[in-house]
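Journal club side-thread
Mid-discussion, someone asked how the predicted structure for our own chain would compare to the paper's figures. Pasting it here so we can look after the session.
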Amino acid sequence: MGLLNYLCLMSIVSLIQKKTIESLSVLYKQPFSEKDFQINQTKPEFEGDYTVVMFSLVKSLKLSPEVIGKLLGDHMVNNNQALFTGFNIIKGFLNLSVANEFWLGLLNKNYGDICYGKKEMNGKKVMVEYSSPNTNKPLHLGHLRNIFLGWSYAEILKANGYEVVKSCIVNDRGIHICKSMIAWQKFANGATPESAGTKGDHFVGEYYVKFNDAYKTEVAELMAAGKSKADAEKEAPIMKATQQMLLDWEDGKPEVMDLWKTMNGWVYSGFDITYNNIGADFDKVYYESNTYLLGKDIVQQGMDKKVFYQKDDSSIWIDLTADGLDEKIVQRSDGTSVYITQDIGLALQKYEQYKIDQSIYVIGNEQNYHMKVLQLICQKLGMPNADNIFHLSYGMVELTSGKMKSREGTVVDADDIVDEMIATSKQHTEELGKVQDFTAEELKELYNTIGLGAMKFYLLRVDPRKTMVFNPAESIDFHGFTGPFVQYTYARIKSILRKNEMAIDSSFPTSLFPLEKELIVIAEQYSAVLEQACTEHNPSVIANYIFNLAKTFNSFYAEHSIAKAESEDKKQLRLKLAVFTANILKSGMQLMGIAVPERM
């Protein structure tokens, strides 16, 4: 197995790239790089494993793809007989067949490596910001896509060798917070989450809805009395009281500050329960109440650098029309900052605190414009790391009934959907009737594992950039493109391994059946998949790969018995295939925050 030394350093694609460059350089007496050609997996309808696409070489070499392919194929096979067994050329594509020795060596070396595919630390640090809730309402389904996406991408970065700081900015101040506070004062009669028997964030969220109900009523009454809609909305007593409360908060009025701290405390307790239930965590939490004054000094610096300009009313702006955007206010005429100003200040604070090489914001696509403005202003100000701000933009989660509206109380609450998923997993598992020997505690853990796994997989299997519709029933189908399907495959493999003994040292067969080889080929690609998911900021790459690996294992197992294999060598080969597959399934699912049960 002389090629095994290569396996510690590169994937099969990298190895083929290296051999292609070596052969081209010898044949044509000039330097080449991997940018001069492409390596793809050979299409199923053609013979071969990997294909060299040579069309980009035609112009520089002044030869046809067929001629280049014939010379290149002959040289590569003749000089790398331990790696390649043959080649064919179809319409200018060079299809290479990789020797079984390579695949068997790869399996034998890596099948027991639980860290297979992951990279060594690269010395770079990245901050990933996600969740960013408001403290006037509980987390909802939209937050779940955000949280799962941010958490998963942070883990993908770690798997690719980055040091990661998971962060969250809590929007704990502003007019929306005061709405819940005013409604509590008017309607609660001193009630608390404890007295109401309600989780803290749900309790506060109910008063946000009560505010909007009362506000609509007052606006309607004023309009009935002859006011225009615009005037009625401005003069509604409950809105005026809310605006005054915001001013009192900014002035630090003690009784307002005390109520604000109390109600936020209720919400934080509720958030903590939800985060714990869904397996989310953060290394650093920022609070808008501590950051909303950030950036004011930067505004003055921007004025000095002529990046900003002042209008007649003393407000300060930046003109981005030359950059294809528009004019943007960065400081109001009364000297107070706006959201973009706070974000500029926080971006600088993040860098100064952690010296991050990249700052990734997981924020919905509704904020695409805002994020473009933020990075552009930071660049014009010459801020460090401004070029490395990245917006991981994602589409909204919609219901079959349409969009969610928190002020109308029509959102799908995160806690409710988690409970529904666990209840549905219980129903499906009991219908399968394979858990009679589980204890009550084991069943509870299993239902949680399946329910949360189904939800996370379903929300992560879609490209983040796409809007999606969440279907709880579809997400938990044990036979579909779902988390439970992958979990069941893993549990099935673990059952097989419990029933069959693996030899510590066993001889290896030299032949591979097509499905045996296909399983090794797919497993080998895990490292490249991790790189792709990282580069594309896209956990769905892993979800799709893991599903395909599980599906291929099930096809392999249906075709080839392990316990009754043709020989002991074949049995041991297939057991190693099972271990290799299980390790990768577990690793990939962990990167999405999904546990895999040993039994189900």
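Post-session note: The longest helix spans residues 200-224.
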